Amino acid sequence: MTGPDAGLSNGPTPKPLLSVLKGACPAVPPMWLMRQAGRYLPEYRALRAEKGGFLELVYDSAAAAEVTLQPLRRFGFDGAILFSDILIVPYAMGQHLWFEAGEGPRLAPILAETDLSALKPDFSRYEAIYETVRQVKAALDPQVTFLGFAGSPWTIATYMVAGQGSKDQGAARRLAYQNPEKFDAIINAIIDATVVYLSGQIEAGVEAVQLFDSWAGSLAPLEFERWVIQPNRRIVDKLKAIHPEIPVIGFPKGAGAKLADYATGTGVDAIGVDETVDPHWADRALPKGLPVQGNLDPLALIAGGRAVEEAVDNIRSAFARRPHIFNLGHGILPDTPIDHVEALLSYVRRDRP
Ligand SMILES: Cc1c2[nH]c(c1CCC(=O)O)Cc1[nH]c(c(CCC(=O)O)c1C)Cc1[nH]c(c(CCC(=O)O)c1C)Cc1[nH]c(c(C)c1CCC(=O)O)C2
Question: Where is the Uroporphyrinogen decarboxylase (URO-D) domain (predicted)?
């Protein structure tokens, strides 16, 4: 056996985060934060201003590698997450993508009458991202686990159909009810483009991947089964057929009481839990031994102090008997004070051997 997971007593120390994804239960949980590379960091804002636009930054592999490494240098997290965006998949599927300053992403929307075959996929749009992965991998501390990611089909479809973010994902939900065949074709195309993208990230060097289903919470139960559980299951199955050793973290934000069905239905190796979920309930509801990730409220981190310590104690006690990766319940907010992140790390790690 070779590699960091060979389990030899005199071999290299296993990476804490990867070990937990494979079922280890250390006394102190490994930790990273969703959106850890981003606008709350002055060094990110400086590089972003220099490059001009968000996509310019993503497509400059050296700069994107630097942004991926910035939070590692500053805080020493156990995980590095590739700096890119979930909307690179619709972009590679042939949709126009741009970012409106101060607002967010825009895509030329897929209307009910538009034929999906009007999109001309161009998977060469993934190449710069794979190059970012290779550059990060070459520079990464061997104790740090490198995470790749993609959006889940439902969440990607909400952006592809509406052309932008929306409060209730109404455009995609309407299309899914009114024209399920067409919606199914969109979901299938996203599944295929996502498997290509994640396999490429894995071949370039990421060691686990996360599927972000940021809008999983907006669906009725039968729709959740059809558009969240089944498509994620198909991605997991296809990835496992190619890369059986790579753990997949599913993050169905807002799934609430449907979390356990998601875990068993998709076959993910670990599950991300958002901040609205009671961690004690999650521990009872989720399959025994399934690694969980989460779930500090990003707003508690902005408040800092005692509120954070109480929440951390509550989360850690709930997940003390299962593999746990400490994280926020959703992405870190741009106005989060840096010293609150430092305080969180020292609090979580205060009794780390
Ligand atoms: C829905 C979604 C998107 N992108 C993402 C999601 C799913 C996770 C979630 O729910 O938060 C995921 C994402 N986006 C980004 C990452 C990079 C890695 C990391 O987590 O640090 C990741 C994992 C960078 C980014 N993606 C974006 C930024 C900010 C761009 C800037 O510098 O102006 C960053 C750092 C832009 C983006 N990208 C997206 C939106 C809605 C926006 C604009 C609003 C916002 O800024 O949060 C789509």
Answer: 30-39, 147-163
Closest to 247 in 3D by CA, of 88, 89, 7, 15: 15
> CA angle, corner 306, sides to 314 and 323, nearest 5?
30
At 241-264, the pLDDT tens digits run 999 999 999 999 999 999 999 999
Domains (range + CATH), the chain: 26-348 (3.20.20.210)
Nearest Cα to Cα of residue 127 among 92, 157, 161: 92
| Whether the CB of 87 sits within 6 Å of ligand 1 | yes
User: Helices 61-75 & 338-348, crossing angle to 10 degrees?
Assistant: 60
Torsion from C-alpha of 340, 279, 150, 208, nearest 10 degrees? 90
Q: How far is the CA of 67 from the centre of ligand 1 (A)?
A: 13
Q: What is each CA distance from 250 to 210, 231, 235, in whole angstroms? A: 6, 12, 11
Using the 8-state DSSP alphabet, how is residue 238 labeled?
H
Closest ligand 1 atom to Cα of 44: 32
Annotated binding site for substrate: 35-39, 85, 159, 214, 330
SS (H, E, C) 189-227: HHHHHHHHHHHHHHHHCCCEEEEEECCHHHCCHHHHHHH
Test site for ligand 1: of 41, 45, 59, 85, most ligand atoms within 8 A of the Cβ: 85
Distance 9 CA to ligand 1 centre (A): 40
ipTM of the complex: 0.92
